[in-house]
């Protein structure tokens, strides 16, 4: 699935292969209901609950609306949680706002594209706030572009098993 061409010659890293909008919410059920009734989402997929910090958990739900994946994430804190905000909590919805854009995700298809993003993030002084690998499915990183856009940019490099994973998730949502 290539939504926008990734042009390494142009030096840009914004919007190549855009495929996902990630939103933060304080009301997961209300956010899902809004996406279902207003935008036609039908099937949701869930990741395991992530412990973001002591006493702080993040759960998410993902769905496809056309060619775009929508991810909704909600952070929950216990009374004993740390006072420091986690990556997943910023930017957060304002009072009275159901959803707030947290990140825009881009799909990368080979190591050359991954390396290009790493070089460009350094060249443009975009700090990598969060980086890792999920099993044999994908590698990911989040750039802090909040001073410019008000949200993060995420880049995902699909490993061989990742292509099957994303293709299957689209089929499930389209069913």
CATH superfamily label: 2,3-Dihydroxybiphenyl 1,2-Dioxygenase, domain 1
Helix-and-strand structural type: alpha+beta
DSSP strand count: 9
Write down the overall geometry: globular
Structure description:
The chain has 175 residues and is α+β, with helices and mostly antiparallel strands. It has a single domain, classed as Roll (2,3-Dihydroxybiphenyl 1,2-Dioxygenase, domain 1), CATH 3.10.180.10. It has four helices and nine strands, in the order βαβββββαββαβα. Strands 1, 2, 3, 4, 5, 6, 7, 8 and 9 form a nine-stranded mixed sheet that branches. The chain is globular and about 45 Å long.
Chart the SSEs and their pairings.
Layout: E1 18-25, H1 28-39, E2 45-46, E3 50-53, E4 56-65, E5 68-77, E6 99-108, H2 111-123, E7 128-134, E8 138-143, H3 146-149, E9 152-158, H4 160-174
Parallel strand pairs: 1-5, 6-9
Antiparallel strand pairs: 1-6, 2-4, 3-4, 4-5, 7-8, 8-9
